[in-house]
Design goal:
single chain; 92 residues; alpha/beta; three-stranded parallel β-sheet; globular
Length: 92
């Protein structure tokens, strides 16, 4: 489903940009945020992870990685065209 950051305008948001499921360091980063996601939520802060993977690739995110219950406690968003990455200058 489509997601617009505009829906969160004026609210605190942490965007976690990562290079997709093939990036071991990126997956470590997501794994580090997962156990503290509820603390962010309690403070009214929304965590969103933005990936270079396609939507289909997001389904394979957990294959081969140690992730409890095969999900994260925050949404994973797909940006294969790098539109959001470029808008935030998070990608060359």
């Amino acid at each position: 489903q489509k997601f617009s950051l505009g829906a969160l305008r004026g609210k605190p948001v942490v965007l976690i940009f990562y290079l997709g499921k093939g990036c071991v360091h990126c997956m470590d980063q997501l794994n580090a945020f997962d156990p503290v996601a509820a603390e962010f939520e309690k403070q009214g802060i929304t965590l969103l992870a933005v990936s270079t993977d396609t939507s289909a690739g997001l389904r394979d995110t957990f294959i081969g990685y140690d992730v409890k219950d095969r999900h994260y406690n925050f949404p994973l968003l797909s940006d294969p065209a790098l539109t959001t990455f470029r808008a935030y200058r998070a990608y060359d």
